[in-house]
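step=predict obj=Cyclin-Y-like protein 1 isoform X1 n=361
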Amino acid sequence: MGNKHSCCVYTSPSKTRGKPQDVYGYEEPGIDVHLTPNNRSTTSLPGVPHISDRENYPEDVKEDPTSDPSLRPLFPSRSQSEISKNVRHRSRSKNHKNRRKSQYDNRVLQIQNTPVLRKYSSCSTIFIDDSTVSQPNLKNTIKAVAFAIYFHIRNRESDRTLEIFDEKLHPLSRDQVPDDYDRRDPEHKHIYRFVRTLFSAAQLTAECAIVTLVYLERLLHYAEIDIMPANWKRIVLGAILLASKVWDDQAVWNVDYCQILKDIAVEDMNDLERQYLEMLQFNINVGSSVYAKYYFDLRALADANDLSFPLEPLSKDRALKLEAMSNEDGIERINQKPTLVRSSSLDGMTVNPRLSVAIIS
């Protein structure tokens, strides 16, 4: 096989290579076949584009904020109305209280309720936090992602869902699900505790939290469903499961999550992952520009909800540390201890070699 002296090779005096039908006596049928994203690969599912075309979607990417860097994510629009509503409510309640109090009481109340002063950078001092695009702060990133999920649930447009995500049909624990489980919106702290528990047990990174939000919004966009009280836990669990396998550089198995959520079966986790991938059309790619877009929008959401990152003055050591966190070998270089430099003594600097010292007893 493959030898040029094989008996199956047709010899021709022409230098050009013959067509397959000339060599083997085969004639192609008169069917004009055009390769499209649907039939480029015979083993792919119908409607799923080839992997070489994942980067160049003709029309879907233009409408998908999780793949197009020029479009804003979904959660800023869902959170804007809630933030504006809270600001107006606080303003009205404050004005109402001020009208009923005296001038002295208002002054005392103003001093007691003075918000924490925010640190701003100047020409001589720069205040900056330790969170960067390449290595975000884990705790604050999870809180910001929990806020995004919270506003998705609070300001959903409808209650569209699927059976695989229904917590009543597929419970995560043996505890009885309340009767009003599909009508009671979870609070931000409940979402944060659920996500933090999974991230702490699986030892996931902050970048994985951002990719989790990307997969969650991509599911809402592709499957045309809404995240709601009845399905938010399983939707978030599926997004974390995929993000940990795709983004995190470690081997993660579904049985690992079954050890965290002890009452869930491995078959249920496998079915959740399989249907999640099918709804995403196996599009698990997250570009660097999309990742950066979600990172900065999450920071803006955190600032709008008074979730400030810890700010400290920028020193030379912190500047070197932040610079090191931006590349791969930086952390090892920062943690590396300085090596001792060998120096010559005065005796070693003479021209003549030093003789051995004799000890006379």
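step=describe
The longest strand covers residues 127-128.
step=end
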